[in-house]
Amino acid sequence: MSLFIASAHAQATGQAPQGGELFQIGFLVLLFVLFYVIAIRPQRKRQKEHASMVAALNKGDEVVTSSGILGKVTSLDDNYMVLNVANNVDMKFQRIHLHAVLPKGTLKSIG
């Protein structure tokens, strides 16, 4: 027990280290910049790419949804797309769930 008390008395000098506040502020700014470069910036880039892909979607495009369903776009709405996934099978999806636009002829080569 006396070991801990002696350490506590030795640390209580009453003087704060000089320049510590500036170092802490600089460290926080550096941490935020690093977080922005690693996390926020790439995510915004992916969001812009996805939004442009959804906006460029046309009737007749072959697509993959985020759930993994492949189909050909038969009709488009402001928020929805109708995919032909098999003979006489049409499914309606939200446009935001578009994962990728496939090259023409991909569905024929797979199926």
UniProtKB/TrEMBL annotation:
Q: How does it sit in the membrane?
A: Single-pass membrane protein
Q: Where does this protein reside within or beyond the cell? A: Cell membrane
Among InterPro entries, the record links this protein to: Preprotein_translocase_YajC
Residues spanning the membrane: 22-40
Q: Is the keyword ATP-binding assigned to this protein?
A: no
Q: Which UniProt keywords apply?
A: Cell membrane, Membrane, Protein transport, Translocation, Transmembrane, Transmembrane helix, Transport
Where is the major localization of this protein? membrane
One GO location term (cellular component): plasma membrane
User: What is an annotated GO biological process for this record, any one?
Assistant: protein transport
Q: What Pfam families does the record point to?
A: YajC
Which superkingdom?
Answer: Bacteria
Q: Which PANTHER family match?
A: SEC TRANSLOCON ACCESSORY COMPLEX SUBUNIT YAJC
> What's this protein's family per the entry?
Belongs to the YajC family.
Q: What is this protein called?
A: Sec translocon accessory complex subunit YajC
Species source reads Pseudohalioglobus lutimaris
